[in-house]
């Protein structure tokens, strides 16, 4: 008797006569009238129990597969059992007393017989259990271990179903508020499973924990430390999975929190937007008015996207917005030492060792640890011919910070310089070596000596762009941190000529709010700009007063004239004494004024001169007002307390400064005349510890050689785009349009007299051309 139908005999046995009913129809009627169909429920429930007992007995008899040698060989039996299980799961909320033991029986059935059940029956019974869980009849704490075991089975649909259910149920549980007690109970189950020797169970638990951590459901230190502890699992597959998650977390963090998840998910890097000066020139100068508008609109879009990228990168570099599982380590020093000891003793392939090296270097740089044995270990692999050497050098850069003694890193530093930067090395090796030297000196400037720096700076004259740009970036770095190591012509105009790197262990203690100087400069600029307009008006008024005063005259004129005459006599005597080789003191003073800046103490003396022009007076008054504003603001605001508006203004000014710096680097802003506006911005030690260095950044401006297959593909693409070469005659013959005017003229039927006149005209023209062929013919003279 099929289980999907309730026959009249079965119903008559229960005291009811009716036609055949299917399970879906009976289900809808039972939901409408639960009390009227208790007999049918008991009948179907007893049939379900008998089928479950039969499957469990055959599983206990050690059948390798019920499908091959038991009741599962008949597909209708498995289908009937699955339909009954789903039917009972749907009607369980309407019969809580009659079906009180059904969820427990379903869990025990899956736990005992899941390995030997047919695939379709396993999926159906699991769906029935998920239905009970969604209706909160069963708690997820009771079934989490079962769902993790179901993922171990070699059944892909069942594995995907169980994994998605665990993730979505935990997310739904923490959607409105965090249930810490329930979360800790579930975490204890998964963390204990992660430490088991069974590789499959540990892998599925690690994948589940990592996915919940990536979705920021379990975003606590306990989960992060559990993932980090998985790096010490005896199984190499578990260790590799944990290392991959830790290394790629920054990439995963940039992706959207989508519902689709995969174990080998890769981040999509958006290319950086770069605006060339040629594009700016074309947008402003070339083309018609409409095309200029289109180019300007495109340019504005590019600038907006570039500012957005700069804002995102600045937020990512900010300490408050940065997160990595490695940053939540409770014992970072112990983790790094233990992982490094495993690196020294493991016999894995080179790629796995490189992953361990990256994680150790990232931990050392992030927490600013001291692991002195790590640098001699890297020194063994620093060779230009070493496989994946750029990533190895990037790890060496990340492991350097200002708390490491320079003596410990100096052998590695010298090895990099000697192996990569020399005249017989390849261009790519020199460029990579100079970039690595710059990044290491940015973190530990005490490693650089004057002789070594002057030797490295000479590569700025190289004809290779990668080498010359790397050398110039090294020059720009030392212009900021230590200009005294450079020769005079390479120093340029540094912001602080006496700047020197901090000694080992030296710490700068902040005495003010970070960024308060930006607020001070902003206020001074506003005061000076407002005061310059008022001062210009006052100078204009005073100029009128001076002119009226000179026209009027008074009693004091004579005294003033006498004083002026006496001063002129003194000046003339000084001029006669100081004239040397026909050059007067006035000319020398004017040359000094051009080459040097005026001092603030001389402004009062220069303002008294009656022969100063109005433009000079305005300039002097503006500079004097700026000096006074600086003095007043420094005296008044040193003891002030910053408000919330001031902190918001500081944040806006920082963002504005970052945007201007990015636009200047891309050539969209002209360099300001302010000597304090630096081209290179030296990051702080905290920013450097959070900065992630990869091998691609060390290979900047290096043109890699294409393989033979890439060159062939490029040639074929060029042939497809261009048209096939043909002779001009062949093109004319294939012409599908009408004849040209010349061809029509040749075929035109003309009278005989017209033909003769045309021949005579052409003969005369040829004779005139031959007559004036070798001369410079200027035409007939008009005056003849």
Describe the structure.
There is one protein chain. The protein has helices at residues 8-13, 23-32, 38-60, 66-69, 75-91, 102-113, 119-134, 140-150, 156-173, 180-194, 199-214, 221-229, 236-247, 249-254, 277-285, 289-317, 332-345, 350-367, 374-379, 389-398, 406-420, 427-443, 450-457, 465-481, 488-491, 516-552, 556-578, 585-595, 603-607, 614-636, 644-665, 685-690, 695-698, 708-721, 728-733, 741-747, 752-771, and strands at residues 5-6, 21-22. By secondary structure, the chain is mainly α. Strands 1-2 form a two-stranded antiparallel sheet. It is extended and about 125 Å long. The termini are far apart. The model is unreliable at 1-5, 11-19, 64-69, 252-273, 534-601, 603-607, 633-638 and 673-678 (pLDDT under 50).
Spans where pLDDT lies below 50 across 5 or more residues: 1-5, 11-19, 64-69, 252-273, 534-601, 603-607, 633-638, 673-678
Question: What is the general shape?
Answer: extended
Oligomer: single chain
| Main sheet characteristics | 2 strands, antiparallel
Content of β-strand: under 5%
Walk across the major sheet and give the strand order: 1-2
Span between N and C termini? 130 Å
Q: Work out the number of β strands.
A: 2
Q: Radius of gyration over alpha carbons?
A: 43 Å
Layout of helices and strands:
Elements: E1 5-6, H1 8-13, E2 21-22, H2 23-32, H3 38-60, H4 66-69, H5 75-91, H6 102-113, H7 119-134, H8 140-150, H9 156-173, H10 180-194, H11 199-214, H12 221-229, H13 236-247, H14 249-254, H15 277-285, H16 289-317, H17 332-345, H18 350-367, H19 374-379, H20 389-398, H21 406-420, H22 427-443, H23 450-457, H24 465-481, H25 488-491, H26 516-552, H27 556-578, H28 585-595, H29 603-607, H30 614-636, H31 644-665, H32 685-690, H33 695-698, H34 708-721, H35 728-733, H36 741-747, H37 752-771
Antiparallel strand pairs: 1-2
Helix pairs in contact: 2-5, 3-5, 5-7, 6-7, 7-9, 8-9, 8-10, 10-11, 11-13, 13-18, 15-16, 16-31, 17-18, 18-20, 20-22, 21-22, 22-24, 26-30, 26-31
């Amino acid at each position: 008797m099929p289980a999907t139908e309730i026959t009249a005999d079965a119903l008559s046995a229960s005291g009811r006569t009716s036609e055949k009913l299917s399970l879906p129809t009976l289900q809808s009627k039972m939901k409408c009238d639960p009390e009227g169909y208790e007999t049918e429920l008991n009948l179907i429930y007893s049939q379900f129990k008998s089928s479950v007992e039969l499957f469990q007995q055959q599983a206990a008899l050690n059948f390798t597969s019920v499908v091959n040698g038991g009741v599962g060989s008949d597909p209708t039996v498995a289908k009937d059992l699955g339909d009954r299980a789903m039917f009972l799961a749907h009607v369980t909320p309407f019969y809580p007393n009659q079906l009180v033991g059904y969820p427990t029986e379903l869990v025990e059935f899956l736990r005992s017989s899941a390995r030997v059940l047919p695939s379709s029956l396993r999926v159906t019974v699991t769906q029935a259990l998920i239905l009970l869980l969604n209706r909160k009849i069963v708690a997820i704490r009771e079934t989490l271990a079962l769902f993790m075991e179901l993922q171990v089975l070699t059944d892909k649909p069942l594995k995907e179903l169980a994994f998605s259910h665990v993730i979505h149920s935990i997310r739904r549980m923490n959607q409105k508020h965090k249930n810490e007690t329930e979360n800790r109970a579930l975490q204890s189950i998964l963390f204990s499973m992660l430490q088991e020797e069974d590789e499959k169970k540990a892998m599925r638990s690690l994948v589940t924990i990592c996915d919940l951590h990536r979705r920021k459901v379990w975003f606590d230190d306990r989960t992060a430390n559990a993932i980090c502890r998985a790096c010490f699992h005896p199984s190499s597959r578990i260790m590799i999975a944990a290392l991959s998650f830790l290394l790629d977390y920054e990439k995963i963090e940039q992706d959207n929190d989508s519902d689709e998840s995969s174990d080998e998910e890769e981040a999509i890097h958006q290319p950086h937007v770069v605006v060339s000066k040629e594009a700016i020139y074309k947008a402003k100068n070339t083309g018609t008015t409409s095309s200029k508008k289109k180019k300007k609109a495109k340019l504005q879009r590019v600038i907006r996207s570039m500012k957005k990228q700069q804002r995102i990168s600045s937020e990512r570099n900010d300490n408050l917005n940065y997160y990595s599982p490695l940053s939540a380590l409770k014992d970072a020093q112990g983790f790094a030492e233990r992982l490094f000891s495993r690196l020294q003793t493991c016999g894995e392939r080179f790629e796995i060792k490189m992953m361990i090296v990256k994680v150790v270097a990232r931990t050392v740089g992030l927490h600013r640890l001291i692991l002195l044995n790590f640098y001699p270990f890297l020194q063994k692999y620093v060779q230009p011919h070493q496989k994946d050497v750029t990533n190895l050098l990037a790890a060496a850069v990340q492991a350097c910070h200002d708390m490491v003694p320079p003596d410990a890193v100096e052998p590695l530093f010298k090895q990099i310089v000697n192996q990569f930067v020399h005249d017989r090395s390849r261009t790519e090796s020199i460029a990579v070596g100079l970039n690595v030297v710059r990044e290491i000196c940015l973190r530990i400037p005490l490693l650089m000596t004057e002789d070594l720096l002057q030797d490295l700076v000479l590569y700025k004259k190289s004809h290779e762009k990668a080498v010359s740009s790397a050398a110039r970036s090294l020059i720009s770095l030392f212009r900021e941190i230590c200009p005294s190591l450079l020769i005079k012509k390479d120093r340029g105009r540094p912001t602080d000529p006496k700047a020197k790197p901090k000694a080992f262990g030296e710490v700068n203690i902040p005495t003010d709010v970070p960024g308060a100087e930006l607020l001070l400069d902003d206020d001074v600029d506003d005061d000076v700009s407002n005061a310059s307009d008022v001062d210009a008006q006052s100078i204009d008024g005073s100029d009128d007063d001076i002119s009226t005063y000179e026209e009027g005259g008074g009693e004091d004129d004579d005294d003033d004239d006498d004083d002026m005459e006496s001063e002129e006599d003194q000046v003339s005597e000084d001029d006669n004494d100081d004239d040397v080789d026909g050059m007067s003191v006035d000319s020398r003073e004017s040359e000094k004024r051009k080459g040097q800046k005026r001092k603030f103490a001389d402004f009062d003396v220069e303002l008294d001169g009656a022969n100063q022009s109005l433009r000079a007076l305005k300039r002097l008054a503006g500079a004097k007002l700026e000096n006074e504003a600086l003095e007043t603001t420094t005296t008044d605001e040193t003891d002030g307390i910053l408000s919330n508006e001031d902190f918001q203004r500081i944040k806006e000014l920082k963002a504005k400064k970052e945007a201007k710096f990015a636009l200047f680097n891309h050539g969209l802003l002209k360099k300001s005349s302010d000597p304090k506006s630096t081209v290179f911005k030296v990051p702080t030690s905290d920013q450097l510890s959070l900065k992630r260095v990869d091998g691609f950044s060390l290979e900047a401006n290096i043109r890699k050689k294409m393989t033979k297959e890439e060159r062939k593909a490029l040639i074929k693409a060029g042939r497809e785009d261009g048209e096939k070469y043909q002779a001009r005659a062949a093109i004319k013959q294939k012409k599908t349009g009408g004849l040209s005017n010349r061809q029509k003229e040749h075929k035109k039927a003309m009278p005989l007299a017209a033909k003769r006149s045309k021949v005579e005209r052409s003969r005369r023209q040829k004779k005139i051309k031959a007559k004036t062929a070798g001369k410079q013919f200027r035409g007939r003279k008009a005056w003849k």
